[in-house]
Automatic annotation (TrEMBL):
Family per similarity comment: Belongs to the class-I aminoacyl-tRNA synthetase family.
One MF annotation (Gene Ontology) recorded for this entry: ATP binding
GO aspect biological process, one term: tryptophanyl-tRNA aminoacylation
Reaction equation(s) it catalyzes: tRNA(Trp) + L-tryptophan + ATP = L-tryptophyl-tRNA(Trp) + AMP + diphosphate + H(+)
Protein name: Tryptophan--tRNA ligase
Binding of ATP, residues: 9-11, 17-18, 147-149, 187
Keywords: Aminoacyl-tRNA synthetase, ATP-binding, Cytoplasm, Ligase, Nucleotide-binding, Protein biosynthesis
Length: 333
């Protein structure tokens, strides 16, 4: 059976972008039953930028609770936090020696995050995509459901795997296929339709968090930046209207339909009518998940135990793949 791997950073609140772009697909692909699924809270990725230890610990449990509340079943999927399966970091070192500085320097996320002051960025932030490649390849995973922003990292994963295979004359690491599907692969900020919704945006009003209550969700959507014009009657009418497009996309994704179907129904309406309808839809979808997350977070020891069981199952896969990798490299053990 083909294997799926994907992960989410515990560096901030889980938000609607994470849910629609990633988490929801994780559950769908688990439920399809045609894949073996491994899902991960990537705590080692989070520390590429400074993290408060107490908060990191809390956010790791919160993201794990988010996976579970959204429908990841720890019996059918393997659910882990990255640091607990040491082979991720071990293979990442090998991949640090495969990836070229030039490849890493061309990553747009690195350029965005390091900004003008790359001298002050951590070495880990630069190497971030090599750890991500290792996350996937330590399971020989072939399919990776992600949002649009991870596409370049998955292309790099292919390049690293192919170079390793080529350098050693082996056909060991598989080719990875990104799974970037649906109407919500890039959910935008509610304050600025040209920037993606992100947990690192200082404005909490820019995103809907999985733990927001109904009132907060309605307020954030009411204040979401659009333009004064009514909804158009077809997708072509959204050209140049980024804020409007984002809300219509959200409506389509949350109601499992297409943008055209949403506009066929709501075209001509004003925002004062459409936004409350969107809020109802979002609350209907998120409130039960938020409620379950809160319940799970009431028993952190149970979450930790679930992650420990996941790590044990994961290592049955990762230990032999690391051993084989070391054999190929000529490591004496
Ligand atoms: P992270 O933690 O930034 O985001 C987790 C997932 O959510 C998706 N996502 C979005 N999708 C749509 N619209 C948005 N506004 C939005 N914001 C985030 C991301 O695309 C991602 O799928 N590097 C990864 C974590 C990672 C990983 C991996 C992923 C580490 N190792 C291996 C896949 C495979 C990251 O920072 O995602």
């Amino acid at each position: 059976t083909p294997r799926i791997f994907s992960g989410i950073q515990p560096s901030g609140d889980l938000h609607l972008g994470n849910y629609l772009g990633a988490l929801r697909r994780f559950v769908e692909m688990q439920d399809e039953g045609t894949y073996e699924t491994v899902y991960c809270v990537v705590d080692l990725h989070a520390i590429t930028v400074p993290q408060d230890p107490e908060r990191l610990c809390r956010m790791t449990r919160e993201v794990a609770a988010g996976f579970l509340a959204a429908g990841v079943d720890p019996e059918r999927s393997i659910l882990i936090n990255q640091s607990r399966v040491p082979e991720h970091a071990q293979l990442a070192w090998v991949f640090n020696c495969v990836a070229r500085m030039g490849w890493m320097g061309r990553m747009t996320q690195w350029k965005d995050k390091a900004g003008k002051n790359a001298e002050a960025a951590s070495l880990g932030l630069f190497a971030y995509p090599a750890l991500m490649a290792a996350d996937i390849m330590i399971y020989h995973a072939t399919h990776v459901p992600v949002g649009d922003d991870q596409k370049q990292h998955l292309e790099l994963t292919r390049d690293i795997a192919a170079k390793f295979n080529h350098d050693h004359g082996v056909d060991f690491f598989p080719e990875v296929t990104p799974v970037i599907e649906g109407t919500a692969t890039r959910v935008m900020s509610l304050r600025d339709g040209t920037r993606k919704m992100s947990s690192s945006d200082p404005s909490d009003a820019s995103r809907i968090n999985m733990l927001d209550d109904a009132e907060t969700i309605a307020r954030k959507l009411r204040k979401a930046r659009t333009d004064p014009d009514a909804l158009p009657s077809d997708a072509a009418g959204l050209a140049g209207r980024e804020g409007a497009r984002n809300l219509v996309n959200l409506y389509a994704a949350l109601s499992d339909t297409t943008v055209d179907a949403v506009l066929a129904e709501h075209g001509g309406k004003g925002w004062a009518e459409f936004k409350p309808a969107l809020a109802d839809l979002a609350v209907g979808r998120l409130a039960p998940i938020g409620e379950e997350m809160r319940r799970l977070l009431g028993d952190p020891a149970e979450i930790d135990a679930t992650l420990a069981r996941g790590a044990e199952r994961a290592r049955a896969i990762t230990v032999p793949i690391l051993e084989r990798t070391y054999d190929i490299l000529g490591m004496v053990r």
